[in-house]
UniProtKB/TrEMBL annotation:
The gene is trmFO. HAMAP family: TrmFO. Its EC number is 2.1.1.74. It comes from Pseudosulfitobacter pseudonitzschiae. The lineage of its organism: Bacteria, Pseudomonadati, Pseudomonadota, Alphaproteobacteria, Rhodobacterales. GO terms for biological process: tRNA methylation; tRNA wobble uridine modification. One of its GO terms (cellular component) is cytosol. Residues 5-373 form the MnmG N-terminal domain. It catalyses: uridine(54) in tRNA + (6R)-5,10-methylene-5,6,7,8-tetrahydrofolate + NADH + H(+) = 5-methyluridine(54) in tRNA + (6S)-5,6,7,8-tetrahydrofolate + NAD(+); uridine(54) in tRNA + (6R)-5,10-methylene-5,6,7,8-tetrahydrofolate + NADPH + H(+) = 5-methyluridine(54) in tRNA + (6S)-5,6,7,8-tetrahydrofolate + NADP(+). This is Methylenetetrahydrofolate--tRNA-(uracil-5-)-methyltransferase TrmFO. It is an enzyme of class 2 (transferase). Its main location: cytoplasm. NAD-binding protein involved in the addition of a carboxymethylaminomethyl (cmnm) group at the wobble position (U34) of certain tRNAs, forming tRNA-cmnm(5)s(2)U34. Catalyzes the folate-dependent formation of 5-methyl-uridine at position 54 (M-5-U54) in all tRNAs. It holds the Pfam family GIDA. Its cofactor is FAD. It is found in: Cytoplasm.
């Protein structure tokens, strides 16, 4: 049916695209291959399943580009953000969620929408006709990946993404660990104590780094290369870059005071973040890894407080696929060689849950507008969503294109503001003020049909 929007993939991008298009009055079919065809990282067949972290990162819409993206999605009646707010967990200034109820609510909400239906099964080709959005994410099936590569005339690019382990809270030694958000950040006591902290002295840290470097790692198959995304590096890769790298990254000790030894400053601190509402599960922040399972349990039990840890899930590594979007997609997220096909989410070269859902939001609205006989302009590049879509549809250098989180470096500068660190607070506030005004102006004409 030409008046039906078909969306392949029910992750963050596909779920958001379906919600936006359906609310504009378009009939939507979500094609989801899970649970009939599984992936390395997914555990369920639910729509909107979170496969890595349970965090949507900063919720600060005045000083952080991710927080601004949250704001824009909320202003556009975004399903992903509304569901995240409903299942929010304490995480300092970040937006973390209880992942299983989150995915169940996304699934239930979409299933209950009168304009949305779900068909389970794998789509293996790019259709010649009809309106389609492919939001198959970084774990696009090999068969579909081959079809995409054949259509584009180029190999799909790939990098390797790693998953952090999850620990059972009742197996953590709280006589050694303590609860505190960095710099006591948060408006409530729950927020100020959202993270669980495990301290290390210098000798413990050095021994930990030695073990990381010596541990058995996952090997790559012939022809594969380890082109990691820098925002999701395995900890052992960071350790290989220098012994102090982790201590200045996910294990930095600043802004934390150990109540068990208040006069002793930790050399390094491992942080864990609550992974579910019950508080029974905690994920080790920034500890994505490609160590083999046996090595993981040995190495992670060297962390003070985790000597007797039990793991609900160990870390892992998987291949992430994305397009060279600057050469393949136009400003409407359409495949230049086949305009009836749009792409959305991480396969377009954005990185992160929020960015993925944001591209789904835009693709859903643009496709729906087209089906309804109209069109939508690309959002201004001064907005967070506009900055992202501008980047992936031609703003980035195709020769060096890599997955990108939203950041203020993608925004056009504001004239008259100081550069450098000293002027950063005023500059970021100017970016976000301008973005909010321009985003509302972009949304306003759509209110009658959305």
């Amino acid at each position: 049916m030409t008046d039906t929007l078909h969306i392949v993939g029910g992750g963050m991008a596909g779920s958001e695209a379906a919600w936006q298009a359906a609310n504009m009055g378009v009939q939507v079919v979500i094609h989801e291959m899970r649970p009939q065809v599984g992936t390395f990282a997914h555990q369920t067949g639910l729509l909107g399943e979170m496969v890595c972290s349970n965090s949507f990162r900063s919720d600060d819409s005045e000083q952080n580009a991710v927080g601004l993206l949250h704001w824009e999605m909320r202003a556009a009646n975004g399903l992903i953000m509304a569901t995240a707010d409903k299942h929010r967990l304490p995480a300092g200034g970040a937006l973390a969620v209880d992942r299983d109820p989150f995915a169940q609510t996304v699934t239930d909400t979409l299933m209950e929408h009168p304009n949305i239906s779900v068909e389970y099964g794998e789509i293996t080709e790019l259709p010649q006709s009809g309106s389609w959005i492919f939001a198959t994410g970084p774990l696009t099936s090999s068969t579909l990946g081959q079809a995409i590569a054949a259509e584009t005339g180029a190999e799909a690019l790939a990098f390797f993404d790693a998953i952090a382990p999850i620990v059972y809270y009742d197996s953590i030694d709280m006589e050694r660990a303590w609860m505190q958000s960095r710099y006591d950040k948060g408006e409530t006591e729950e927020e100020r104590t959202a993270y669980l902290n495990c301290p290390m002295d210098k000798a413990q840290y050095d021994a930990f780094i030695d073990a990381l470097l010596a541990a058995d790692k996952t090997e790559f198959h012939e022809g594969e290369t380890a082109g990691y995304f820098d925002g999701c590096l395995p900890i052992e890769v960071m350790a290989e870059r220098g012994r102090e790298t982790l201590r200045h990254g996910p294990m930095k000790p600043v802004g934390l005071t150990n109540p068990h030894q208040p006069d002793v400053k930790a050399h390094a601190v491992v942080q864990l973040r609550r992974d579910n509402k019950l508080g029974t599960l905690y994920n080790i922040v920034g500890f994505q890894t490609k160590m083999k399972y046996g090595a993981q349990t040995e190495v992670f039990k060297m962390i003070p407080g985790l000597e007797n840890a039990s793991f609900a899930r160990l870390g892992g590594i998987h291949r992430n696929t994305f397009l060279n979007s600057p050469t393949l997609l136009d400003g409407q997220m359409r495949l230049r060689s086949r305009p009836n096909v749009r792409f959305a989410g991480q396969i377009t070269g954005v990185e992160g849950y929020v960015e993925s859902a944001a591209m789904g939001l835009l693709a859903g609205r643009m496709a729906a507008a087209e089906l309804l006989g109209g069109s939508l302009d690309t959002p201004p590049a001064t907005t967070a969503m506009g900055a992202l879509i501008t980047h992936i549809s031609g703003g980035a250098d195709a020769k060096t294109f890599q997955p990108m989180n939203v950041n203020f470096g993608l925004f056009p500068p504001v004239d008259g503001l100081k550069s450098g660190r000293r002027g950063r607070k005023d500059r970021y506030k100017a970016y976000t003020d301008r973005a909010k005004t321009d985003w509302q102006a972009w949304l306003a004409p759509q209110a009658a049909i959305a």
